[in-house]
Amino acid sequence: MEQAKLKVECLINGELETNTYFIISKDKKVLIVDPADGEMVFDFIKKNELIPEKIINTHGHYDHISGNQFIKNHFDLPICVGVLDYDYLLDPELNMSYYIGDNYISPEAEILLDDNSKINFGGEIIDVVTTPGHTPGSISLVFDDKIFSGDLIFTEGIGRTDLTGGDPKMIIESIKKLFSNPNRESKIFPGHGIYGDLKLFKEVLNEFNIKV
């Protein structure tokens, strides 16, 4: 059996226990998905002797972008975000940091992602799927039966839609879009909480008539 070209590691970090994911190639290059605590993410990179290539924010809320500046200060790498969440990185009210007294502003994103975007990394093509609802520019990443879903869906429910830019109808459409033809071998990597086999998300998906 051929070994997977990319492996995934998770670091739970930040005030809201964000799942920061490291998508790692065989030559130790890494995509950093949703860095929360920049120092913890930096330490993980150094400890594992990784070579950062990109930061990818699944959406623009502070608990998924607050490590951007620290990582950017130490590595010369671009930040990627969904095109409709570009302003969230630069606006403390949109990214919600204002409401905890932080007023965090991320460096600007250099790469804006939409449904036509693909990320070529480590011999794999990572597909970008726009999955709005939690925020207008939320994205998910899909490759090799792995789905990085940000704050779209969790084992215990779906993402919040009561924050600025949230849309309860749109988040349901996004869930149906992302899981329209589910591969039962898929593994789901959400922005918080338990990650793993698709069956762990069965109860939530069944609410939307998605059978797994």
Automatic annotation (TrEMBL):
Cofactor field: Zn(2+)
Highest taxon above the source species: Bacteria
InterPro entries: MBL_Glyoxalase_II (IPR051453), Metallo-B-lactamas (IPR001279), RibonucZ/Hydroxyglut_hydro (IPR036866)
This protein's record includes keyword Zinc: yes
Record-linked Pfam families: Lactamase_B
Domain Metallo-beta-lactamase intervals: 17-192
Keywords per UniProt: Hydrolase, Metal-binding, Zinc
Keyword Hydrolase: yes
GO MF term (any one): metal ion binding
Any coiled-coil regions, as ranges: none
SUPFAM superfamilies xrefs: Metallo-hydrolase/oxidoreductase
Name listed for the protein in its UniProt record: MBL fold metallo-hydrolase
